[in-house]
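Table S5 (text form). Sequence records supplied for joint modeling of the two-component complex.
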Amino acid sequence: MRDSSPAWSFFRLGGWLVVAAWAVFVSCYPGDQLTVQEADVVVTLFDGGIDFASKQSYAMPDTIVHIVQGAGVIDDISRDFDTEILDRVASNMGTLGFTREADPDNADVLMLVSIAAGEHVGFTGYPWGGYWGWYYPYPPGFGWGYYPWYGGGGTVYTYRTGTVFMQMIDHAAADSTLEKVPTIWIGALNGLVEGDAVEERILDGIDQAFDQSPYLGDGK
Amino acid sequence: MRSDGAKTIAVFVLASALCATLSSRARAQDWFGLATWQVSVPVDDTKLFTDEVSFRGAGMDFRKTLTGGTIASVSMAWNVFHERTELETLQLEFGAVSGSQDRYINSFPIMLGLHQYIGNRRKTRVHFGVNAGGYLLIQTFRIGITEIEEDAWEWGVAPEVGVTIPMTTGAWLEVNGRYHWSPTPKNLAGEDFSMTYYQLNVGFMWEQ
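The corresponding structure-token record, covering 428 residues in total, follows.
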């Protein structure tokens, strides 16, 4: 009988080896382990029509603006690193050749620093929708299976992210009719608000934003 | 790889489990099963997106003798290309983005093939042929905590050349190479790109 021959039995195992290989691939999928530092991203954008060589001086407030969503929302963003953040921005601007002016009217541009933070909630659960999803032919999410503590399983997770914005605005080109002031450069640092090295990551991100914007130093 | 990829994997695993346990009353020496571990090397446009050799690949073929040494096949496989970069800066037209990146291509070829085996089946045989069919391609790009993923079905071909070495009655060691080419995909930026990679497959073939 072909079915009982050693060769057939052994190499039928080959099919199961493939199945096992795929199961291993799923469980050992590469890249899903991400450290807090690896989640940081720095974005810079600039107005391509601006001649940065004509911008020699800047003014910067001594306060960081906190951006919160909606009226009545409590501002719980820390101010522990405000001084260090502003000092690092000033240091990078100085390295690029900008002169800092105390009076905004004497400056070519204004540098405004702001911070936004938000809480994110996620849920991972079994795709079959829990106990009732197994027992009855109902789609996931129907009945008791919707709630994770009724046997469906799953995990609710939260994480907090923060973004530091550095906006360079050309206040001399402000349009009082439209009440708009053009932003000619923006640097944004985004990352998880977790771990012990938040300050270091923010300062490194500020340095990176200016490193990837060498055109700011044109003509200085 | 997220929901669509996970569903595809589940389907493939279940299909493989089913096929692996099939017993056949067909005429002897008619049907063959083939299971391979697949190593893939990206080239050209594929290499520009993920520049790393993939050792995460597995495939399952079912082959049937048509006449003489001519064999038809149905194959399916899963190949994972992945590259992680640390703090790489991407230049934009008016700006730049920096951060660690994870880039993935999950390739699921499902193909029909026609192969010509040369020589006596009880001895080492060379074979060559061509596979053609579809690829489910899942392209994923992650930077920071932002991820972009696109999946699409594409068409392609995969010429093949290989050698089968008899191990025992009705069982062979199989080594073959394939060149995968799918000219129809678009990358995550919406630009045309040609999905191409070389592959070395090692595994076992057995009579069903």
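Note: Chain A touches chain B through 44 residues (CB under 8 Å).
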